Fold this protein.
Amino acid sequence: MTMSCRAGLILLALLALHPGRVTAQEVKWRDAATFEIEGRGWAKTSGPFDRLPDSAKSKVTQLAWDLSKESAGVCIRFVTDASAVSVRWSLTSGSLAMPHMAATGVSGVDLYARSADGSWRFVGNGRPHKQEGNLGKFEFPEGPKTRRECLLYLPVYNGTKSLEIGAAPDAILEKAPPRPETLRQPVVVYGTSIVQGGCASRPGMVWTSILGRMLDRPIINLGFSSAGTMEVPVAEPLAELDPAAYVIDCTWNMGDSAEVYRDRVTKLVQTIRKARPDTPIIFVGQSLFRPEGHPTDLTRRLEAAVQSVQKEGGKGVILVPGRDLIGDDGEATVDGVHLTDIGMARQALALLPIVREAVSGPTKPHVYIDTDTANEIDDPYAVFRALVAPEFQVVGLSSMSWGGNPDFAAGTRKSQKMNEDVLALMQLTDRISHPLGALSPMPDASKPVDSPAARDIIAKAKELPVGEKLQVFVLGAYTNVASALLLDPSLKDKLAVHVMGYNFVDGRLKTDEFNCQGDLNAASYLLKSGVELYAMPANILWGFLWTKADVDAHFKGKEGVRDYLVKRWEAHAPNDPRRILWDIAVFEAILRPKLAIRTEVVLEGSRIQVWTKVDGKAMQADYWAATQPSKIEPVPAPSPTPAAVTSKPQAPPEPIVISKGKEAYGYQAFPDACRLKNGDIVAAFYAGYTHVSLAADDFPLGGRLCIVRSSDEGRTWTEPAVLFDDEDDNRDPHLAQLDDGSLICTFFSIAEKDHKRLKSFKDPKLFDQVRKDSGVQMITSRDNGKTWDTKARSVFPDWVCSAPVRQLPDGTCVLGLYRGDEKTGLSIAGTARSTDRGLTWETPVAIKAPPGIGLNAETDVIRLNDGRLYAAMRSFTDDMYDAISDDEAKSWSEAKKAGFPAHAPHLTRLGTGAIILSHRLPKTAIHVSGNDTKTWKGPFPIDSCIGAYTATVELKDGSVLIVYYTEGGGSVIRARRFKLNADGIEFLPL
C-alpha cells in the first residue's frame, strides 16, 4: 500500500470519528436566542438558557440553583429549507462527561425535524470535544425542502454559554410559527436526576423530551440532580407557571419520614392550588426494576401523603405507582437508579396515556385512512367525514388504486393527488401523513407489495402505547394494509382494520364484489390474517342512496372542501341525480354504532365483524349535521337505533352464551365481569365437569378459571382462555382493576382432604370424598388480563370469598369474605382491608349477625354517596341481610334484613346514581335502589334459571350488561343486556 493511500485512509477514519464537525466558513450564523426557546418557564433569566429566574434563588436549595444553570430540556424551535444546518456552541463547564453518562448526553446537542407525517424524527447528535467553540453539522436525509420545522435540544448536565445555528447564506432560517393554540400550554416536570436526564445517551432521549414529542407540546424540565426534594418554598415558583399539568417525580431524593412526605406534598398542592385551582398534579412513585421491591417504602410514603390530600378533597391530584414505569428485566438502568435510553423510553411511554388524558381528556382512537379517492364520488366525501369527526385523531391518509383500471399505478397517483388536495383545503397537510400507496396489487396472497403507505401504517401502529390499536379504514383495494401485515407479522395485534367490500350472503363473506375483484389476493389474505377485521359488505348498501340536490343544499357555495366535493360529483357523474356513497357508511357505523347492526363470522379461525344492516336515513342526517361549517363538536346520533330495530319486538331478545370453547370443559359457572380502563369488558368463570370438579387421574388438574373478553360492549366475545389452573378445583373468580391498572383476581380452591385422587372423575365415590378449601387466593395481571401470575398467593386461609375487591377513592381496598364457625355451626360474614393494593391485608373483621342467624356466604360491598360502606350478604334463611360501616370497613353495624330473599349479591352503581343489586333467588333477578340503599324496588326477573352468581357492568350507552350461569348438567355463562325504565327493565339486543 502506498503512503498516499495510507494517508487517505487515516483521514477517512478521522472524519468518521467526528461526523458532527464542520468548518465555520461554510455557513451564515444566527444567535439561537433570536429563535423560539422552549422548555423555559420564565422569559427573564440571568442567561437565555437558564431554567430558573433570579426570584427563585431564595426558594430553592443552593444545589438546585446551581443545577438550574444546566440547560436540561431547553430546546430551540426554528424553520429552515436548507439541506443541512450547523450548530456552534460553548459550555459553562469543561467537564464534558460523567463516569456513568456519555459526553453526548452531558454536553452534546440533538437535532430533530418534523417529518411529512407530522411526527418528530431524529436527525443527528452534535458531539462535544471542548468547552469553547464546539461545531456540529446536521444533514437532512431528504435534502432541501420547502420548509421544515426543527427542534434542537441543548446539553443536559452542562450549561450552554452560547449557541448559534447556521445554514447556507441563501437558505431560509427563521423562528418557527407558534404551536397550535391547543398545544401551547407546557407540561411542567419537577424532580430528581432522573427528570434532569441521567443517564440518557443524548439530550433527545431524556424521558421528558420523548414525552414532549409524543404529546407534541412543550415540556419544562425542572429536574435537579439530588435536589428534587419538594422542600416547601419550591412550590412558589412552580405556582407562577401556567401549565397544562404538573408532574412531580421526587421519591428518589426523599429518604424522609412519612410525616415529611405528608407535610411537603400537602403544602406543595396547597400552594399550587391557590394559583392554579384546576391544573392536574401528577405524583410519580419510585421507579425500580426489581418487581419484588414494589411498592417501595418511599412510594408507600408518597402514596399515603397523596391519598391524604385526595381524601381532604384535593381534586385533580393523581398518583402513578412506580411499579410499571421501567420494566423488570434490568435493561432500564445504568446503575439500578439512573435510566438508560431503554428506561427513558419506557418511562415516557408509561406516563404518556396518564399525562395525555390529564391535559387533553380521554384518548381518541388513532385513525388511518387508505383509499382509492380518484375512483368514485364517495371516497372524498367519506374522508371529509372522518377528518371533521372530533371523536377521531386522523394520523394518516394514503392512496390506492382500484380494480379494472388498465393503469393501476396511474390510479394510485391520481388518488394521491386528490388526497393532497383535500388536506390542503383543510390546512392539514403538515399534520396528517399522506404517503403514496402501492403501484400494483399483490401478486399472490403471500407476497406483499412494499410501498411508503405500507411502511407508514407499520410505523404509525408501532408508535402507539401498549394496548392501543391503529384503526385502519380501507376504502379501496386492500394491498396497502395486507402488505403491511405481511411485511411485519407482529402488526396483527396492533391494528383494527375496517374495510368497504365483500358481499355477505347466507352468513358467508364472498369476494364477488368490486373492491375484492380488483385485489383478490389481498382480499383473500385479509380474511385469514387473524387481524381484528370489520367488513361493510356492498350488498347491504344498495339502498344507501344520496341525491345531488341534498349535496347542493348543504355544500354548494360554502367554499373550500365543500365546494370541492360538489365539483367532484359534477365532474365524475354529471348526469346522475343520485348515487350510492358507499364509503360514508363505514365511518358512520363506527361513529354512530346505534345506526348499524353487525354479526360475527368465523373463517378458518379468524373472527370477522360483519355489518348486516344500516339505518341509511339516520346516517345521512348525521353526516349533514356533522359536516356543517359551524359543527366542530361531536354531533349526537339523530336516531337512537336503526329503523329496522325500532319496531317493538314480539319477544325480548334472547341472552347469548359467552363461555363455550375447548378450554372451558363441559360445565361453566360462577362468573364475574369487569370493565377495564382500556374500554374492554372481561368476564371470568369456573370451568370443570360439574358443580365441584375435584382432580382425578383422568382429570388431573380439577376445575380451572377461564376468561373471555369483549371489545364491543358485550356483543361479541373471545374464545375462553385459561386464567389459572393448578391441581385443585379453582373456583369463584372475581375481577377488579385498581387505580394503577393492575387487575386482581380473587378466588378459592377445593381439594380432597389429603389430595388423594380417584381414577376417574366419573366415579360415583367422587362425591363422598372429604374436602377442604384453600381459603382466599389471589393472582394479578399487569397487562389487562392477557397474562397472569403463575402462582397464586394465599391471603386468608380461614376465609373464602365470592366477590371482587372494591377500591375506595383513597386507594383502600375492601374484600367481602365469609367462613364457617365450628363453635356455633353457623356461618360468619366479614370484610378485610388493604392499603397497598392487595399486597398485604389487615386482619378480617366479622360482621355481627343477629342471635341465631348464620350469614352464609357471598358478601359484597359498595360505597355510598355519604362515604359510608354498605355490605350485602346471604343468610341461611335465604333472606338478604345488610350492614353499614362508618369507618371504611374497620367495623360494621349489626346485620339486618334487607327486606327480600336473595343469594349471591353483586353491587353496581350506575352513572345515574342508582344501585343495582343482582342476585339469584328467586331464579335470576335484580333489585334497584334510587336512594342509596334506603329502599329497594324489585325483584325484576332476568332469567328463569337458578344458577345466577350474577355480575353487572354499565355499558357506554347507559344500558347494563349482566352475566350469570345456568345451573344444570350443561351449565354455561349467559350474557344479557337491559336498561332501567319506570316500569322496571327493558331487554335490549346484544
